Amino acid sequence: MKDLTPRREDLDPIEIASRDEIGALQLNRMKWSLRHAYDNVPFYRQKFDEAGVHPDDLKSLSDLSKFPFTVKQDLRDNYPFGLFAVPREQIARIHASSGTTGQPTVVGYTASDLKMWGSVVGRSLRASGLRPGDVLHNAYGYGLFTGGMGVHGGAEQYGLTVVPVSGGMTQRQVRLIEDFRADGITVTPSYALSILDEYARKGRDPRESPLKVGIFGAEPWTNAMRLEIEAAFDMHAVDIYGLSEVIGPGVANECVETKDGLHVWEDHFYPEIINPTTGEVVEDGEMGELVFTSLTKEGFPIIRYRTRDLTRLLPGTARSMRRMEKITGRSDDMIILRGVNIFPTQIEEQLMEVPELSPHFQIELVRPGRMDEMHVHVELAEGQSTDIQADAAHRLKGLVKSHVGVTVKVNVTEPGGVERSQGKAVRIIDNRPKE
User: Fold this and answer.
1) How big is the CA angle at 274 (ends 84 and 427), to the nearest 5 degrees?
2) Rg (Cα) of the chain, in Å, rounded?
3) What pLDDT, in 10s, does the model give residues 287-310?
4) Which residues make beta-bridge pairs with 362?
5) Whose CA is closest to 167, among 425, 351, 435?
6) What angle separates helix 223-233 from helix 344-351, to the nearest 10 degrees?
7) How far separated are the first and last CA of the chain, in Å rounded?
8) CB-hemisphere CA count at 13 Å for 19?
9) What is the chain's mean pLDDT, rounded?
10) What is the pLDDT of residues 15-47, one digit of tens each?
């Protein structure tokens, strides 16, 4: 793979500033953000008043722990525009969740917010190894989802040539990657596997593709999958992180030269890690739930938003800003099976240890009797004989039992037997009887 390390002189000065400089900037901006939210969003004024705190109580960064959390239900309760801090007429763009599991959540951006969003996405793309003039194949979904438009705007602002493919039509994905000679691709890791399958169906060697880097986000993925994708495409694979409530993609990104966790762009987003049960802030290095406070957002400030993502904060390496470890899972995606806590990424890690199986998988939860059971649906890798299905299932079952601590049933199908993702992967199907 080609060395894509950016030149130090191309970085924003704040990326390599001292921790004292970063902390001073954060405190200044945090005071503004708390005051902005309190003065302009009735919800925050009421929450702060009920908690007995005021923006003037923030004297140091650690004082943020005195302020109340914001959760997803708060966004739903204030649908559609109740959390906007500027008049609706000053909102330049609106994004929203699908609302398939309840009331949609809505976020808004002023023109200044969009410019800031573009700058952190551009910083992320530079950290990934792309340079102005490179071609970016953007296979994130466009529309109300923040992924497609968020990456697109930042890529254009950074100076890339953007191919706005969106998701789906996998045959066309491969053709345009090749015809337009894409240097980078932004896509969910599960859909990258579908694109890889399409290369195989076309009889094309993905290692001969023009791609130099894949920038993957919107769902948890493991380092084992990183190695699989890098080997298959002979390209770098880095992680990008974001969520619409905070801004969208571009909150944090791995640096291509280290790939050792995602540097949080702390000049715009202040991270905390809390104990998900008690809500207490824990020390850097300890595992817990990630919480974000926006420092510069005008249209939709967010104060101590509980992401439900589980990770830990680590010192900076390639940049001065702290790193967050790859997301191990979400607290609300955790499966408790007979007293054992399980995340889909743990199943993925063991699946990657069985080369005869493809990386595509789905977890089904059932309750045929009194006890819950987990069925793991996987498929043979291309070219593998169906004669090895039983052996492969036995090995994966043993690995899960040894490393995760639960007994599962493994169902191995022929290639193509597991439903493919056109965006975020659906990893868990809960077919247990409703209580």
Assistant:
1) 80
2) 22
3) 999 999 999 999 999 999 999 999
4) 377
5) 425
6) 50
7) 52
8) 5
9) 93
10) 999 999 999 999 999 999 999 999 999 999 999
